[in-house]
Each structure stands twice: as C-alpha cells, then as structure tokens.
Amino acid sequence: MTTPLSKVDQDFSPELKKLAVEVARHIKTEQDLTALSRQLLKLTVESALKAELDAHLGYERHAAVGRGSGNSRNGYSGKTLKGDLGEVPIQTPSTPKG
C-alpha cells in the first residue's frame, strides 16, 4: 500500500522531478550522490530556519519594519548536523533575544 502524497508533495512534484532529472545527469558515483544529499540537507535546513525566523519576527530580512525593534536579525552562527550523511555544517540565523 502506498502513502498518498501530501499537498506539499503534490504542489512541488513537477518542479522537483525536473530538477532531479537535471541534477541526476551529474551523479556518477555513490560519493556524488552523498555529496548532493549533504548539499540538499544543508540548503533545506538553512532555508527552513530562515523562514521560521521570518515567521517568528513577523517580517522578512531587510524589511524596514524590523529596524529598531530590539529583536532584529543579528547574523549567523555555525552548527553541525549529525546523522546518516555524517556531519553537515550549517549556518543558523540569530537574533539578540534568541
């Protein structure tokens, strides 16, 4: 029995399939696949963290509304994800109030 695709999976499926076909042309070895998986993990997690911070603060990066708020973006800090793909360094956005 297969699990039905979620709304997100359905919405992005054609775009992701097209991208996957293009990227797959450059994968020749298991190491290539692992490197791609690590890059995708890094990009996905960093993008999700940035979106989460936008939602938390209530405005997007560089928006004028955040100036002088006392809790605007304050750079990035390095973290390391540890999992099946080994250690993947990422940059997490930060704010003065955490």
UniProtKB/TrEMBL annotation:
One of its GO terms (biological process) is DNA transposition. Transmembrane segments: none annotated. Required for the transposition of the insertion element. Keywords: DNA recombination, DNA-binding, Transposable element, Transposition. It comes from the Bacteria. Belongs to the transposase mutator family. The keyword Ion transport does not apply. Residues 65-98 are annotated as: Disordered. It comes from Candidatus Competibacter denitrificans Run_A_D11. One of its GO terms (molecular function) is transposase activity. This is Mutator family transposase.
